[in-house]
Amino acid sequence: MAKWVYLFKEGDAGMRNLLGGKGANLAEMTNLGLPIPQGFTVTTEACTDYYNSGKKITDEIKDQIFAALVELENMQGKKFGDNTDPLLVSVRSGARASMPGMMDTILNLGLNDVAVEGFAQKTGNPRFAYDSYRRFIQMYSDVVMEVSKTKFDAILESVKEAKGYKLDTELTADDLKEVIAKYKELYKKELGQDFPQDAKEQLMGAVTAVFRSWDNPRAIVYRRMNDIPGDWGTAVNVQAMVFGNMGNTSGTGVAFTRNPATGENGVFGEYLINAQGEDVVAGIRTPQPITKLAEDLPECYKEFMEISKKLEDHYADMQDMEFTIQEGKLYFLQTRSGKRTAQAALNIACDLVDEGKITPETAVSRIEAKSLDQLLHPTFDPAALKAGRVLGSALPASPGAAAGKVYFTAEDAKAAAEKGERVVLVRLETSPEDIEGMHAAEGILTVRGGMTSHAAVVARGMGTCCVSGCGEIKIDEEAKYFELAGEHIVEGDYISLDGSTGNIYLGDIKTVEASVGGNFGRIMAWADEFRKLQVRTNADTPADAKNAVNLGAEGIGLCRTEHMFFESDRIEKIRKMILSNTVEAREAALADLIPFQKGDFKALYEVMEGKPVTIRFLDPPLHEFIPTQESDIAALAKDMNLTVEEVKATCDSLHEFNPMMGHRGCRLAVTYPEIAKMQTRAVMEAAIEVKSEKGFAIIPEIMIPLVGEKKELQFVKNVVVETAEAVKAEKGSDIEYHIGTMMEIPRACLMADEIAEEADFFSFGTNDLTQMTFGFSRDDAGKFLDSYYKEKIYESDPFARLDQAGVGQLVKMAAEKGRTTKPGLKLGICGEHGGDPSTVEFCHNIGLNYVSCSPFRVPIAKLAAAQAAIKNSGK
Ligand code: ADP
Ligand code: MG
Ligand code: MG
């Protein structure tokens, strides 16, 4: 028979997967001999079983729960459901990973109309007994029966008001009886039945509610954001109650062994005298700092300090603890490794190494890679933020804090920024033409678009704060205003954006520059020592590349060349090329572009100082470059000696039904080899010149996008080689160069062994590979993915976190196949996923050479790479 229920004394910290974090630590603390109210844990497997059995708790599990309950009764010397001296319990959820806000705890379970009288007599404290009962009714109704807590609060407030009280503690026993009667009335009115009087029924109701809470919408969203699988399930802890609300020698509190904001060594916490459970965090009364306990209850304080030190030493990590004091006796109710800011995490990890408590490997493994983001962007001044008014909230697309004046077009944003204003660009959605305005802005807000929309991807690349997809906004870009939460905001008004939470604030909230302290560097140096994967960056401009190098990038894994064509002095030339009817005319138009491209590449090479640079040839469908505004079309027609109608006709002919799968990528080079020729010339001339001018050992890496067939690559490669050799001959240079391909079409992965014969390297373009494998476009998926999350079909956004089961299989297979025909094939990944820690781990495991990600994610990827290497080596 499976074991579904464990007494605390039967478990330990190693059983986290089965008992959940809270349960495993309660067991561990019990083993350490600490003062823990005893209890038992219903396992996470029981939760999974509940879902597999059609949301039912089987009799076998029920029997084990009641058997454990009997053991608990024996330990406590009290009977559950007794009328004179009842055993009361708390019911607490606890998953493997802490999931705040998943389910609220139920306290004082086991009370009913009769037992509360016995409890009052037994404790000699009627006020306390009735207060416990009314809290229980409120929590049970809210958590188990889903009757809103606010309805109960309203009753409590009205009774207080009628009596002229301010504080809950002023309520007398009789007042509380009145509250209880009203609570029960409300319960009956809302649910059409009486409040359950049977303790076992209460218990099973509560256990079921915990299991059910695993799948509530908040929990599903939290899991998706934190990569927690849906099939883990949650455990349930049933624990004997201790009471912090029995008078002035009782109390409850929370504390950390070190400061969770700064990492400073020293106990940091708060408590409330004569209070229960969440009163401390609920903010009803102002809690006291923990040091004050030394005056109030010196014995308890001393014991508390000893135990917290013991716990920190035992776990060798900063602990977050919950405790309760019942009539002068201290109990611990929880300990866990405390959540902390990124800065605190770095400081604590380094301090623990210096204190000889952990190794550098452990220190590196402990830092949550994603959290480094906080250190790389400006943040809001906390006090100013608290005072700010939230207008709404949308997707936290690119982290950081931004405050500035609202502008509605890229040109206006750019112009205002040039005048020295701080600017927030607000758009329905952004397009490549907005790039300069986006660059100029402190922050970007869009009405449409998901986490991988143009705005989101570009903003992350630039390290600019972006909040995207705020559908509640009513915007009129022409009239230059938007409306949100009843505010009418016009050009020049101040708003503030928090790209880490997605919040949109009214007004100009003060920001502070991120500071990178010395411990950050220490951790990164250790990470560099341990990791095997190289980390490159996706950068198109020297400024972005410089940023990335400062953050530790070891090369450029993806330079998108199309961005180079959108600037105002170039776009006309590419438009001319597109509208040309003959090869000669196209070549002439392209020739004008060579100096620009060459200049761009030279600047990049100079910044990179000989580090590898992968340049991807033109990728997007040509229609992205054509003019849409009448005035632009007219100017172009005039310039090219064509009629407006002729220009429009050519533009129309570029229309595609499915541009993502249309005339783009290497298909452009197959139909217009002159484009590839021009780009090759620019790449080679730039490399030769920088090499001779600066002496850097440059080996350009030319990357052909969207290849699906060996002959396709062969064709483009021939064009590239022919031009490159010609340039070398002209310049008398013997410079080396590599030609590879972006692996982003499922067919390419299937044919990887053949394609590898023509390629020096593969770089997995997992954005396209994901959309082509799933068969849905990343620009449209946002519309339906939410339903998929809700129905648990997909758990996370496959564009943010690589779908290792499906797309990952293609990547792994292609890597293996490629190396069968070319053992030295260099392998990398350059999709958005390159900066996602779980994807980085995957890339390490399948033996890629490098990952490439946006500049601000370079440290994250490096840390994740080190963590993967440490995990793999089993240290
Ligand atoms: P969360 O996971 O939200 O912190 P907990 O299960 O830790 O929820 O419960 C919240 C609070 O309820 C605890 O910090 C503690 O103050 C109180 N509590 C829980 N169980 C007991 C108990 N057996 N006796 C007294 N208080 C309890
Ligand atoms: Mg807790
Ligand atoms: Mg692509």
Describe the structure.
This protein has 875 residues and is an alpha/beta fold. The strands form seven sheets. The protein has an eight-stranded mixed sheet. An eight-stranded parallel β-barrel has the order 26-27-28-29-30-31-32-33, surrounded by six helices. A five-stranded antiparallel sheet has the order 1-2-7-5-6. Strand 17 (423-427), helix 17 and strand 18 (443-446) form a beta-alpha-beta unit. The protein binds adenosine-5'-diphosphate and magnesium ion (2 copies).
Offer a concise description of the structure.
The chain is α/β, with parallel strands linked by helices and 875 residues long.
Low-confidence residue ranges: none
Question: What's the average pLDDT?
Answer: 92
Give the count of helical stretches: 34
Q: What radius of gyration results from the CA coordinates?
A: 32 Å
| Broad shape | elongated
Bound ligands, each once: adenosine-5'-diphosphate, magnesium ion
> Which strand order does the major sheet show?
14-24-23-16-17-18-19-15
Computed structural class: alpha/beta
Describe the structure using short key phrases.
eight-stranded parallel β-barrel, 46% helix, binds adenosine-5'-diphosphate, alpha/beta, 33 strands, 875 residues, binds magnesium ion, elongated, eight-stranded mixed beta sheet, 34 helices
Outline the fold blueprint.
Blueprint (H helix, E strand, L loop, with lengths): L4 E3 L8 H16 L7 E4 L1 H9 L6 H18 L2 E2 L5 E2 L1 E7 L10 E4 L5 H9 L2 H18 L5 H15 L9 H19 L7 H15 L3 H9 L8 E7 L10 E8 L6 E9 L5 H4 L5 E2 L3 H4 L1 H18 L3 E8 L2 E9 L4 H13 L5 H7 L12 E2 L1 H6 L1 E5 L1 E4 L2 E7 L2 H9 L4 E5 L7 H6 L2 E4 L7 H9 L2 E4 L5 E3 L4 E4 L2 E4 L3 E5 L4 E4 L4 E2 L5 H13 L3 E5 L3 H9 L5 E5 L7 H12 L3 H26 L4 E4 L13 H10 L4 H10 L12 H6 L1 H22 L6 E4 L5 H22 L6 E6 L2 H5 L1 H5 L4 E4 L1 H9 L7 H9 L16 H15 L4 E4 L7 H9 L4 E4 L4 H16 L2
Parallel strand pairs: 3-4, 16-17, 17-18, 18-19, 26-27, 26-33, 27-28, 28-29, 29-30, 30-31, 31-32, 32-33
Antiparallel strand pairs: 1-2, 2-7, 5-6, 5-7, 8-9, 8-11, 9-10, 11-12, 13-25, 14-24, 15-19, 16-23, 20-21, 21-22, 23-24
Helix pairs in contact: 4-5, 5-7, 6-7, 13-14, 13-19, 14-19, 19-34, 20-22, 21-22, 22-26, 23-24, 26-27, 33-34
The chain binds adenosine-5'-diphosphate (ADP) and magnesium ion (MG) (2 copies).
